[in-house]
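Job type: complex structure
Entries:
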Amino acid sequence: MIQRNLPVLIPLVFLFASLVVSGFGIWKRQLAYPVALFATALAFGVALFGLQHVLTVGSISYRLGGWSPPIGIEYVLDPLAAFFTVVIVGIALLVLLHARIVVERELPERSVAYYAVSMLFLTGLSGIIITGDLFNLYVFVEIASLSGYALVAVGEKQAPVAAFRYLLVGTIGASFYLLGLCFIYLESGSLNMADVAKILPALHSKPTVVVGVLLIVVGMGIKMALFPMHGWLPDAYTYAASTSSALLAPIGTKVAAYVLVRVLFFGFGVEYVRTELPIADVISWLSAAGIIFGSVMAMAQLEMKRMLAYSSIAQIGYVGLGIGLASPLGFIGAVLHVLNHALMKSCLFLVAANVRTSIGHSTIPSFDDSLRRQMPWTMAAFSVAALSMIGIPPMAGFFSKWYLALAGIEQSQWVFVAVILASSLLNAVYFFRVWERVYLRRPVEKHPVVHSESRIESREVRPSMLVPTTVLAIGILAMGLLNALVVELIIRKAIPPGL
Amino acid sequence: MIDFVIGHYGYWFVIALLTIGLWGMLAKKNLVKKLIGMNIFQASVIMFYIASTTKWNATVPIIDPAVGSADATHYINPLPHTLMLTAIVVSVATTGVAFALLIMIYRRFKTLDEPTLLERMK
Amino acid sequence: MSPAETYQSVVPLFAVLVSLVVVPLILVSAQRPNLRESWTIGASLAKFGLVASLLPHALAGRTAEVRLLEISPGIDFALRADPFGVFFALVASGLWVFTSFYSIGYVRGLNEHKQTRYFASFAVCLSATVGVAFAANVLTFVVFYEVLTVATYPLVIHKETPEAISGGRKYLAYTLTAGVLLIAATAWTYQVVGDLDFRAGGLLEGKSASVETVRGLFLLFILGVGVKAAIMPLHSWLPTAMVAPTPVSALLHAVAVVKAGVFGVVRVVGFVFGPSAMSAFGLSTILAIFAGATIIIASLLALSEDNLKRRLAYSTIGHLSYVVLGTALLTPASFAGGVLHIANHAAMKITLFFCAGAIYVNLHKENVSELDGIGRAMPWTMGAFTLAAAGLAGVPPVNGFVSKWYLGLGAIEADAQLPLVVLLLGGLLSAGYLIPIVYRAFFRPMAGEKGTREASALMVVPLVLTATLSVALGLAPNLFVHLHDLAMNISRSVIDGGTP
């Protein structure tokens, strides 16, 4: 009984939680955090259960309101959706575990609103993943985006400006999607993804369909910050509150990539995007350009969060590249990188949040080795995540690059192989910059007193922040060693038909 | 050719709106004007849906005994209209959030003019 | 010879892990140096014991294997103690024992900072090295190879002076780039062959691949492993990395890093491409030319270097290419000579570096021109130095002679005159840059105060032992661990193909 309802439960839990958080929050402010945390934990449990069920029994389809598709809205939990929900809710859970002290410090008066909005954000993200209806997807995209704007807006002084820009650009993206959807709907007469997939092959050559596909790709490209549509991202991630960026960066853009996979491979069909309308090629070339651009820009940044933001643009390029290669190996690489990058980037943003909590800022040129002595564990987590970003085996990051490189070689796309490998070295440069300062630079002494190691007081953050950070770091290593399991058990089952 | 132009006048109107909206968002310096541009842009998409369901010699999708229910072509497709109801709600919500942001920006920087704002953000 | 057989055993895994599990122990014992160092010593002895326990099996042609888990669909994370792996692991773990004792004397003698980090990184390096030795397939090899790269970095920058930091940058720039190329080569091989297991006689043997593919793969592989093997022109990180403490240089040069590089070259030539592909596509000639040029140029550069450690560094670059040259000649004798030279050069070069370190700790002298008369102050140290220098020049009965003998034999077998000339010239040049040091030490009058002042026993005993070992291995190449027989087995299995 409950199994049949699994798909709808996850967004519902979050939606309900956002109401309860605001309700309880008005009554007692302290209650907001535990409620939000509990809801996320509950949703994570449901997501895990769903994944287990999908893998052992099979995909679940839920008919909203009892109407059968294609008339009614269908929610589908298939292996791909189940995998994405687990990743997203799992990361959100760890970030929320970490959030309490950061929220108290950075958003003292607005904690209730913050938790309520983050619940709404997760409603949107999980809804996007689970829905099988193209218009319903738009609604969830907007739920996630609107709460995303709000999450960005609470932050530093400049945050509202960044959020407003994000809102303008995000709305353009969503409207393009909506416009594209109209073309598809006009031709196919259906909004159900599975239904559209059946109808569309006969209509592939129609100009209306082509325009529709292009508009949808551009719209989602904006949402996933695909180069050159990434302009909104660096400011938004930099000025947002630390915990907001930790929530947005690892999972926000990934969901847009998910939509791209869904719509392109499941909706329009693999053959179509690969040969008839070579949109996949365009995506992979843009992604490759984005990888290089993001990495180079990251090298030039002085602020750690901004550096990580540019790095996100590069990393979403890996996902885009995998999608664009449109082969099983590329798909595996892209989907695995969603998980790996979510782990790495959330770990890095949590590190940035820890540093900010501890020393009040995260400006790279001011880092020195007192940071390492004060926060040894945080910096150890940073090292692990950075090594993984560079792609040192056996860290997780290596393996997504491995699959992407295999995919590139398979199709003799040497440029992409070169880009993937070169970006490793670029990553090494910008992470090494931080690393060298943190571990090797002597602090400029204000008082000419020689400090012995033992006299440096520890300013390591509290366990509630440290534990999620280290769990993520351990997760990076574990995912590296166990990646074949994930690939064999989950991702292979999620490969779209025809790929 | 002329028939094509005249026959699709609704779409030309939509395209004009879309362009005006985009131009407003990109070119205007004042943030409120940008927001207005965004609203025009969203409205154009909504209009596009509505225009696309236009049907001559058909009526509202409520079964009329005079028309009967045998031939569905005599009724307008109601779905795009309902979809657009949702889209309008989304657009209103977006505008609301945007205004909230603008108020925050104005309180902090005492301006909504983009060049001045960029100056004060440093 | 019994046919090659494989048996399941976790010994290779333990051999890799033993130095990794002591890392946390080293870290928590940071405040108690004696306890901390005893972990290092214990781990090094245990590691050597574990590796040595694999030796009888390897000699009997039995290969221990352990498959851990899949790290990529179709590719296992697997360790295999084949004869060549055992050979290299024996060299590395055996010399680590000496280095451990020596390190303690060195860092305490200089009162170095951050000793905990130093010993911990050392242990990780050794784990990675033995992992490189036992890697059963190219992907596992890459994993350990990259770990080795990263783990060595803290040792290179140990002094944390601006010079050390820039040396470290250069080191990372070279080795990470090489790592990336190696990964590309691995992925490509997998796409071409569908299999990555090392196989004596070549993984590509009998597989259809176009000339361009094989040449491209070879280029990527050699660039990937050639940086650590310091084949010119990929060598320039090595002299810069000389800013590291001397035991680290000893480790870099004799035990782990560069030897992992030449080990990689031999693996690539003998176990990935195989002799027939190597000669059929003209790859061996190219490799031999580069190796030969490296021997001559590096030796010439060594002549003009005044800093003792940098002179030794160029000497290392030259001698690594002996191994590469032996491999590239592809005859049974030259291949065996190359493999043997991995061990022989390691024993000699570690002695030389130990001596350089002892001189530095004791007298704070780094340059060749300052060494006048120190043979009288440090007779044991300089005695050991003399033996090792003679060995590198190829004077019997030191072990350098043995490997050079086989290399020369191989060159004659291959009917190649030029390599023979290079080998002879290389020997002369080795004498040319090392013997003057001996001459200065013993026959020039000493400046300053007289009298015997040896370094601490923790340093002198290991270096005397390694020098003795060099001579012993020269007199009886099969002594203790049957390195000679192992090398012959390896060579036969690769060159003749199939079972040893």
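Summary: The interface with chain B takes residues 135, 138-139, 142, 146, 149-150, 153, 157-158, 160-161, 163-164, 167-168, 171-172, 174-175, 178-179, 182, 185-186, 191 of chain A (CB under 8 Å). The two ends of chain A are 33 Å apart (CA to CA).
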